Amino acid sequence: MKARKMNRRQFLKTVTAGAAVVALPSRLATARRASSKPNILFIMADDHAANAISCYGSRLAQVAKTPNIDRIAAEGMRLTNCFCTNSICVPSRATILTGQYSHVNGVYTLADKLDPEQQNVARLLQSAGYQTAVIGKWHLKTDPAGFEHWNILPGQGRYHNPVMREKDHAKKTHEGFSTDVITDLSLEWLKTRDKTRPFFLMTHFKNSHAPWHFAERHADLYRDVEIPEPPSLWEDMSHRSPGSKDYGYTISGIQLSRMEKKNYATGPLETTGMDEKQKIKATYQKYLKDYLRCIAAIDENVGRLSDFLGTEDLETSTVVIYTSDQGLFLGEHNYIDKRWMYEESLRMPLLIRYPREIKPGTINDDIIINADFAPTFLDYAGRPTPSDMQGRTFRANSRGRTPPDWRVSMYYRYWQHCSRPAHYGIRTKRNKLIFFYGLPLGAKGAEKKPTKAGWELYDLKHDPYELNNVYNHPAYAKVLKRLKAELLEKKAELGDTDDKYPQMLEIVRQHW
What we know:
- This protein is of the alpha/beta class and 512 residues long.
- The protein has helices spanning 8-36, 67-74, 89-98, 102-105, 121-127, 178-192, 251-259, 276-311, 343-346, 373-380, 395-398, 477-494, 502-511, and strands spanning 39-45, 77-83, 131-137, 149-153, 163-166, 171-173, 199-204, 318-324, 347-353, 362-364, 368-369, 409-414, 423-428, 431-436, 454-459.
- Strands 1, 2, 3, 4, 5, 6, 7, 8, 9, 10 and 11 form an 11-stranded mixed beta sheet that branches.
């Protein structure tokens, strides 16, 4: 048979087709690898208490609905026992990124910086092929590291017409309310991303941090609504230890005095002619209404992000997580702010949706900590948890397959002082033990004057609002002994023993 001669065009066509056949498996393999790794959308508000999310069923659920945030729970899982390890903004954010406690990552207080050379989850996800971006509140003093794109508020940032700084660009003022602006910029990045690679986007809202500015469109929201008061607003502090009962930012103290001033951020509170109880009630109502108006903007913008995922057919391939950097007191114990180990400050909301794995409408009560976030992100990316991370992935927990060796307690430590005493403790599902040790330990920004020391023990089954300190109750002697032993074990396991701080040893000896 006579061979057929090919001209140049035929030859090149044959060669190109052959090359395409060779290249096709490689492209398919790359696409398969990318599709096997879900996108991760991490949405974090500032100071958003679980009590202010209606799916958590608190006293506020009937008057302040959050339908878009609730949708994540309805289509995924609501976790009821997620806790921060140090309830203050900068340290909590550092723990989320590093998977480490404050005494390991070096971010103890508001004054500390996150070392940009330190390993973090964004860098590790980059190495796994992810596009990484953070947009909104950063608050960690140094520029974000490990993010291909970032556009952040300087420090706390402004609520209205926020100034933001984008990677490799100068600061720029954006017109509008910060929550809307941060969402706009997040959607803009999502639309222009490299669609051949999975993404990891951290959208961080400034809301609902003090002084609780709200969008103009929400000025009349809740105007004629009576916000229910918490059972502990009128708490008798006589059950408390000397270590806690005389401290803290309160509704009746600092918040009332702030709101009575003519220049208060959302307008002054008129208290003329009111007695003390009426003033406290009025302060509570204004505080909660301002705060819940902030939440309304967050909920609307969570809806915008969810709608985008639906429009772009990304819902099944994207893990969506909604949380806050810590909780916040909404009048419980007469408090505002956070920092304490009491439930409303300690508890973080945590909702997660991933239709490929998580059954809709499920609830999980395993003890999760913010150090678990980074290992979980890495698990979704197919990467192991580094040995220096102190958290562990909760991916199996979200699928209803809690590991048999999952933690049964968590360790907490607040270092900063500043009118809320430094303390550490342990929380199980049933009990909470707190030691207020009274020493600032020389932390940056801390008061030099020590506070008093004291212990508190709560039975959360019978006393969920923590209104009865049973530390000295004979019926709890065995529980107390067991919890103190477990507390020491946790401190040793995590490398945060008191012998690292010689000035504490005498305090411990006196009060243990």
